[in-house]
Amino acid sequence: MTQIDNQLEKMPKEEAGRKPRLRFAPSPTGLMHIGGYRTMLFSWLYARHTGGTFILRIEDTDVARTVEGAVEFLLDGMRWLGIDYDEGPIVSGQYGPYYQTQRKAIYQQYAHQLIESGHAYRCYCTAERLEQMRNAQAALKLPPRYDRHCRYLTEEQRAANEAAGLKYVVRIAMPLEGETVVHDEIHGDITFKNSDIDDAVILKSDGFALYHLTSIVDDHLMGITHVLRGDEWISSAPRHIQIYKALGWELPLFYHVPTVLGKDKKKLSKRHNAPSWIELKENGFLPEAVFNFLALIGWSYDDKTELFTREELIRVFTLDRVGAAGGIYDPDKLLWMNGVYIRQMPLEELVERALPYMERPESAGGLPDSVKRPLDREYTSRVLNLEHERLKTLGEAAEVVSFFFVDELHYDTAMLVQKGMDAGRTLVGLVRARDLFNSLEEWKHEMMEPPMRELAAELGMKPGQLFGAIRVAISGRTATPPLFETMEVLGRERSMARIEKAIERLA
Ligand code: GLU
Description:
Arc Repressor Mutant, subunit A, 3-stranded antiparallel beta sheet, binds glutamic acid
């Protein structure tokens, strides 16, 4: 018995009886930012946790706003994160097609069924009339809302419009009185006044149905049991419930999950510094760390555990632990988590995964173009071994270790002179250090440190003053991994040449 079977055993009866079917239903009107994957991930995790089905449905009926390549971008990101689906584009399934533009006739059929049953009506209003109406409402500071003009046309007026071949849209006829209660599994019951719900368009004059109809028809026909989506959709839910009722269909369970917010509590958006998966990848974030990080935006296991493998998340992910309040996208936390994943990785794997980042062109964040590719694997491995503990992303590797690879260091000579020192004393220190290094029998870091400490004492310097000068000399930087280990990896020849160069600069 697998762990998942084990979980199923423990599941409440009503859930076990009906295997959950969940969907993610993006509109390809832009390249989805990372927050969208969080919402997708919740549905995916719950489907995997329960042994249910995860469906990907492309809600592409707003053809004018469809962005070319958006679906491919979405799918590539899913592949990168390791989120698969059971039914959807490409893999298909028995409830397809999974692109709404390919389901036009299905929606038209239901739109007409709603007209027949009196739950929807044809609206012949022209764009001009609607604009006048909106202007008048704005002048009176009323919310913009269709005035239901065509809902009350007489049979004769309607027939005349038809005979004249007027274009029409189909609008849903919302109840005018009473209330609709949205039962949300996360937020509880939310009551809406029916008089506040607009008679929204469900079918446009070009025959394309709109979201409020398409999503309901599809959720029903595709057997969706749990509708999980961002809480910005709560206000649409009463309308949806009325459409379900009008069609005589059973409601799914609704879970409006917290919108992904930035640290400033503002909604994460492309304009508002939300990265895409590809930016994260290019910056050297690991998909497994991003996966872990996303799962914790608006969901928690016990308010303290942060690190979960994919398998652990599948095992423990339940919807009752999704919070009602905003999930925060905290880039610092992602950086920390990525560092943890890098540290946990065996060195061999780190080398394997960091090499492509280091070998990419300099302009893309790789090592200086003057460094010959491919890199020497064995040397790179020794270099990365020194940085393993400190590395937070694979993308920063090139910049952090570049001094190990370049022929020429560029730094300001003044950097050699440490606090409390002057150029003359620094020169003396470096000359004496060079001679000591030269006399070493073996180029091993354990053999370097003791004589260098003695030398510093002899010259009346603090070890940091001498070591700091050597550090700048061999790396051109003020911070490196432990100095003598760095020199060991850098090699005798390179290290000595660099100290020689520093002496020349000071002399
Ligand atoms: N197509 C909608 C979107 O882009 C889906 C909303 C829902 O999940 O019902 O977000």
